[in-house]
Protein 1
Amino acid sequence: MADVSLPTSLIHESPLCPALWPFSLDQLPPESYLVGGVVRDVLLGRQADYLDLDFVMPERAVETARAIAHHHKAGFVVLDAERQIARVVFEKATVDFALQEGDSLEQDLKRRDFTINAMAYNPHTEVLVDPLDGYSDLKQHCLRMVSAENLRDDPLRLLRAYRQASQLGFELDEATAIAIEDQAQNLSQVAAERVQSEVNTLLATTEGTVWLKRAWASGLLQPWLPSATETSLEQVASLNQLEAPLSQRWPELLTQDPAHLKSSLGKFGYVALARLLALTATDAQVAEQQLQQLKFSRLEMRAAGTVRRLQPQLDAPLSIRERFFLFQNVGTLFPVLALSWWVSKAPQCWSIEQLERSSITPLIEHYLNPNDPVAHPRPILGGKDLMRELKIHPGPHLGRLLTELQVAQAEGQVTSREEAFAWAKNYIQSDDFQRIYQRRS
């Protein structure tokens, strides 16, 4: 087993330094090792906003976690009783303790996914244990599997390779790439939620697009996103090209707070959601079913259905009335609809001038104006006003009257309460209103 002494400067003020932990080094048994991503990231000089530590030890993992949690009055939970994995949750840190797999630390490390994740650091001795030469791979920015058998043991590792390569800016070694392609069909055995999490991370950044393409070329995405094609992946790449000119011409279109999306992709914004939809079927119902299979939320499913249904409407000029109902249907998903429409036109690098000349420019102007009566109608009159003045009762006919009144506002026919009452009195005599009213009666 290879042991490496790390420079003090590398350890100091990093998560490897016990002085920065929310508990004392004395509370850890001497054969406790830090493992996984935290060791890798420190060696890469990557800084995390939140302290997340993983320890393995040859015995008493759960008992150690429980004692530390009790001493510091921290949160404690057993994550896996059979494998003896427990978690301690501090205010600004999460610490996992696990029993090592196998009879030795080396056996434990040899069961991991990639060599760069198969290093362990002993904070008592300040020695890095590196039986698979992961440190050398790290310095060469190479993602190398521990073994093909380990990939078979957990097929999610096949997709995780692409995700980690994307996040770290690494390249797969040739043997690993071949093994992934050979085992690609095994990814269909993995729980949808786990696959979705990896896909989300690749969708979240422009760097992930290249690796999405490679995952598709390796056959990994087909069981989960069967409508993804070389063309749709080019559309995803086109979205990356769109961000720069859009940010210059209409910066608020993409920078509006997407928190209202409340989805697994919401925190990444509209572009990430548009990337996802580009990989779904053009048929609305099929697109929704595909996202349901991947366990996406109702929001993403609704977004897929809404965008796919409305997208064809943008190919022809729309009247004010048609624009009004388009915005009623799409709501806050309009930026996703606009992005999806742009990239559905032959994938290309759009310039600011081309964006301005596109047929949906008037719709963007509507959407970005918070006082616009087409995209953001504010009724002059409410239902109670109309019932009181016109002596009508609640029902579908009242809803239609309110909607048509808002359309009249959008078209500029109504600009004041007086005009609104006059318009409403005239409208209730129309055949359209009378048909609805009579059905109620």
Note: Strands lie at 3-5, 33-35, 51-57, 75-80, 85-89, 93-99, 120-122, 127-129, 142-143, 171-172.
Protein 2
Amino acid sequence: MGLLMQVSALLAGINMVVLIALLFLYAKNMRKITSSFTIGLVLFATFLLVQNALSLFSYGMMYVHFDEVIEPYLVSINVAEAVGLLILYRTTAK
């Protein structure tokens, strides 16, 4: 596995940790405020967590099929997602 694929996998793992933290915050809010919005936030975090788990799995199992040309794009996608999730977590936790 190349360095950029390892970075992508690490970022997907970080995204999963942030999503789990968000999921706990959203679930806590959902217990207090039962609305379609809070349920939607829980579902959003859950499906994004599943997406990151599948990405991490695919990086580990199919990395030999990824061309080196695509690796910088995968890193860029994971960096953008990590920044967005960290901003969302910071905003939510306040």
Note: Residues 88 and 94 are 10 Å apart (CA to CA).
Protein 3
Amino acid sequence: MTEATGTVPESTREQPPRSPRGLLQALNLDTRLLGMVGALAVIWIGFQILSGLTGPKHDIFSGTFLTPVNLYNLAQQSVSVGIMATGMVLIIVSRNIDLSIGSILGLTGYTMAMVQVIWIPKSLGLGFDQPYTWIIALAIGIALGAAIGAFQGFLIAYGKVPAFIVTLGGLLVWRGLVFEEQQGQTISPLDKTFQLLGGSPTASLGDVASWILGILACAGIIYTLIATRRKRRKYGFPVRPTWALGVLMALGCLAILGFVWIMNSYAWPPGLATQYAHDHGITAPPGGLQIATGIAFPVIILIAVTLVMTYITTRRRFGRYVFAIGGNPDAAELGGINVRRTIMLTFVLIGILAAISGAVQSARLQAAVTSLGTQAELDVIAAAVIGGTSFSGGIGTIPGAVLGAVVMQSLRSGMLLLRVDSPIQDIVVGVVLVSAIAFDTYVRGRSAR
């Protein structure tokens, strides 16, 4: 199931709850998602305290984790894993796995860089930074990701080769092709417009546009909740109490506007702001020019992908088919679902998402390197599982996977601030992944009993 389905009896619909369990039932929220939010809050507060104790001042109030600059970077660093995790949810829900997604990211990102730096300007002689260069490069990368996904999906769905074997082979093959292209040389500089996909102070919305987007998002949440309530009432389904609807609206808007406020709290670096003032003939004040960065472009891409994937999984037949296959493949096939075609399309979809992540990551680095996407498959799988996706199939949510990606990146970012060695970081991530799977197995076993 993709959503919590708890309801409130008609007789108690407008009565305030008298217990935490009654509150959750009235709000009709996914308890797994709430648990992840609580875990994320503990992680953030913990790293804030630890970074303060290990910092120069050695006190709990001087931490650097919950600063605007770190949260701004954390949001951008979570994008690549978050985008791919939305596709990995469908793969795992359908009782499959994709170990090649990091190599697909590397191959598509490297290919897009070659299109911009070598093929168009040198092979075709059209010069650098053409207005259409980034569009052609992105289209070729997405097409390549879809083709790789289709090939692997065909072998899995129609060839009956286990997904573990196919994607493990893909991990080696596609990574090998990255080294074969241009003998593994670093490719740069990328197209200036393409670099905007990676985010930076100049590749962000700015304060005004960010506030406008936040207000529109709040309006969208309010409209969606009201429309859903009317639709459920129209067909005679139980609905949330009025007070619960108001609480959800307030919490949603508070979260969105708080996020916008944090992104706007991060100002351009002084040198960049001074250069901007000089180029535009602006007289900077004595304290220097303060320019709010706002929401970065890659974060907007992640938000858009999350909304689209949520719509696909909850409102389209394809999404319902994937969950039905994960719940019971034999029953799904007897029910008239084309199981093989649906599974193949899930791999096509994750190939496309890997290509989008490859574009974001190479644009962020402003270059394509052979190590692009190395071990990304581990973080993506961990994000999906931590987000509530079950390896038993049939259970998972897109927002949970994105939140899982934020949890994973928060762990890495926090350990980096504490100067924890990279091997120790991998150990922590591995422990968290195994613990998440063990907890899911325990909960499912207890529910079955």
Note: Residues 207-234 form the longest helix (28 residues).
Protein 4
Amino acid sequence: MGHLVGKDIYQKLGKKIDGSTIRTPMNKQLYAILKELYSHEEAELIVKMPYSLASFGRIQRETGIEKTKLERLLKSLCVKGLVMDIKAKNKFLYIISPLAVGIFEYTMMRTGQGLNTKKWAHLFHEYMQMPGGFYDANFGNNEKISIMRTMPHEETILPSEFVEILDYEKATEMVEKSKKFSVGICSCRHEKMHIGEKHCDVPLETCSSFGSSAEYLIRNNFAREISKSEMLDNLAISKEHNLVLNADNVKNNASFICQCCSCCCNLLLGVSKHGYPNTIVTSTYIAEVDEDKCNGCGKCAKVCPVNVIEMKPESNPEIKSKKTPCGWRVS
């Protein structure tokens, strides 16, 4: 990495992004991504911007950039998803996008003419797959917190007079509490499609967002606005395709639900392919075997999105099935 000299603006940009909510280790792959996505002027602006939400006036004071030029740069960065503009009390606040959820997702959600989508997909894929890189930086020390958490499919939870599923574990409750909805292209499936590793028949347009996040995506053409009923229909698709519901890891004001497949989702692949069981926070509702109903068919092992179920020969003669699911590889 001798070409990354000390005063290189893209090296400074990488360091700035690495200081955000997701660790983003610098290497030649990240350097190539940054140089592809950011102009020199845009990189300089990001380096000077504060990490927290900031008004236009504050950004102008801290960067010293002339008003018209700053307006142009911020608009360009927001359209590319490299800066997020959040409307609060009738004015916009701006914040730099981390690698995830942010730069990767919004870049791969972009549609239209003249986009280097296939090149971007290969760049991100190469960066994410580097041994000892992104996954290790964020999950290599047994971190307990991740940016996303898994939600149960509500109808799979056994009824109980003692336990009631909490609102923040209900996808339908998140929908009911929201007023603005959007759906866009799944960034992970879009990436895998362009590198030839999308092995599922799941449609691309499943990425669901709510509230201010939906407003941001709609305003910058990353997603289209849909109705509440369409949002509920979109969630129903997840059950049909055996998808995992993953939401942002908060209890209140959740902003998105990803509908993830095992072949494309980078966080699920963090578990199944790269061996980091903590890339996603599990639901408080954990699947278990109903021994009275299990016939050893192996369907659960086939559909498990992180490949942790194994079918093993049953040695107990009192159990009718020849094989039973066991051998959880991760906890």
Note: The radius of gyration is 22 Å.
